[in-house]
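Rotation project, supervised by the postdoc (A.L.). Task for the rotation student: set up a whole-complex structure prediction and record inputs and outputs verbatim in this book. Inputs entered:
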Amino acid sequence: MGDDRQTQQVSAAVSAAGSTGTLELGGGLRPGDLAAKRRWAPSWWHLVLIPLAVVMLFPFFWLVVTSFQTLAQSRTFGLHFAFQWHNYVDAWTQAPFGRWLFNTTLVSVTVVISNLVFCSLAGYALARMRFFGNGALFLVILATLMVPFQVVMVPTLLIVRSLGLVDTLPALMAPNLVTPFGVFMLRQFFRTMPVEIEEAARIDGAGRLGTLFKVVMPSMRAPLATVGIMTLLWTWNDFLWPLIVIQSEKNYTLQLGLMSFQGAHNINWPLVMAATVMTQIPMLAIFVLAQRWFVQSLATQGLKG
Amino acid sequence: MATVTLDEVRKVFAGKPPTVALEGLDLQIEDGEMLILVGPSGCGKTTALRCVAGLEKPTSGRILIGEHEVQELPPRKRDVAMVFQNYALYPYLTVYKNLAFGLKEHKVPRPEVDRRVREMSAILGLDALLGRRPAQLSGGQSQRVAMGRALVREPHVFLLDEPLSNLDAKLRGQMRAEILQLQRRIGVTSLYVTHDQAEAMTLGDRIAVINAGRLLQLGTPEDVFRRPVSLFVAAFMGTPSMNLLRGEVAGGVLRAGSVELHAGGAPDGPVVLGFRPEALLPARSAAGLPQLEMTVDVVEELGNETLVYGEVPGEVASVEIDPTLPPPLPGSRARVAARLQGFTDVHSGEALPLGLRTDALHVFDAATGAALAVEAEAAPTS
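Outputs recorded:
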């Protein structure tokens, strides 16, 4: 009731401000307060969203809690809260964790940059240039999105082997340098952009590539961020492909390295969990920092697509 | 500045079937002139503009800017600037950077860029907006920025593609005056595409009326309005459009509905009699003029004038300007419009006697639509 009354006061103040162009909110309520109150106001949706959030967050919560437990605590049922920092130190020192972090970062950053460059070029060409077979080519790219990785895994391995790349870091990068997802997503965004902006740039003196990089790309920060984040997540968390193509421990990625914490007969769960938390911290940080672009790009696509 | 010449320019868009947008267009825009390209939707006027800009390549024909053939050159090498219908401002750049973009692309030294941007922003009243982004501008402000971005490069040719069509009526009138003033001040050769006849009449040194990719008439606004060379031009120019009645000339006498005239010089045969709404006068002030009686249908009081729509005896001649509109129904009554001065005491359903000014009549060949040179005068009442 209180909220309703304050909302009415604001509405009345907005109506009254019409003639003078000034707005004074009654009841000591400021616009920021109103937005905050709306955000925190109870909604029927919360009955669905809160349980869903709990279901989603609980495994991560369990992961973090276990990572601080002693080995003995982890072997008994239930949540035992402890503060065993040493698990993190052990996880870092018992395995070449730094090396794996470097490998994963190198592979992920290379794949992300490559995707941003080449998917943009391919997406732009498919969206804007008129050439024979444009539509068919796009359909083929789209079709590859529907093929599960397990289907192309063996042929990809054969190609990588014929290139002599097995058990090297380039083997982890090569198959993912351009992804159909990136091409598809960026092509769709290029199509939503008014073509007149590019034409204006061409008349103003920019060439094809100049138009793309100086005019189009800066307007595409949200979709580029989306493609970048999604590619980074996939590459960072990829386990199956590194498992197939990498044998030497020095070329392990973090996900592959986590496997080495599991013994044949005995698993030190707090250590595994501590290592897992460490592998996920960079991703969490990047996602939190970039989520504004991510949400914005999805919202834009929803509105215009 | 430079003249712009379109020589037999033809543009066909591929497809099934191919679309002929321009069919051998010949046009010359004089140095410093503002030429208005006007025509109905889909007539090819924007294609012609885009061919000059270099955004479309003609299928055949030549385009010259000054003495240079440019049809093979990319847009950036033509020294043209263009204002788009939706302004096409760079969304992530401030107004200042929007204005400076073209200069930087042409490697103009930084101090010169700054000088020209500030000069142009002063001319267009954009000084206070230089730090804003396009999303923070109103329609009129965006329009001015688009103009500024085009003119700051001091191009040889200035192209405008329906630049006012996204503005409300009041702002459109205001911007029309500003464009005219700016073009006169800078004296740049300009090609302006519109389907708005008020813009065409008020802005143009000359008007080119095109339809189906062909040039129908090129002349001053007065020429095109008062002396249309064809039925299409007559029907297209003017709001409300020219009244057109089917008629017949026999022995030098033209009969169209209840109107009977001496039509000196007209060959015998079917014709179309055209008269603009302002050629109809209240009968009391039209003694000696051919008379016709309108059954009033709709009265629009506009303050300084009144538009009266109604039916008169006769058959209306249809000219297909907008193919999406249905043709008038055949019958013994024709719908016409009259423009009367001030307020009138006329109401729907009344019979309104009108006189027809014989000095403002147009006669067209019914078969070809070509204007006929006819000396019309009222026939003596029998």
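Student's summary: Chain A has two domains: 45-84, 97-304.
Supervisor addendum: Residues 45-84 of chain A form one domain.
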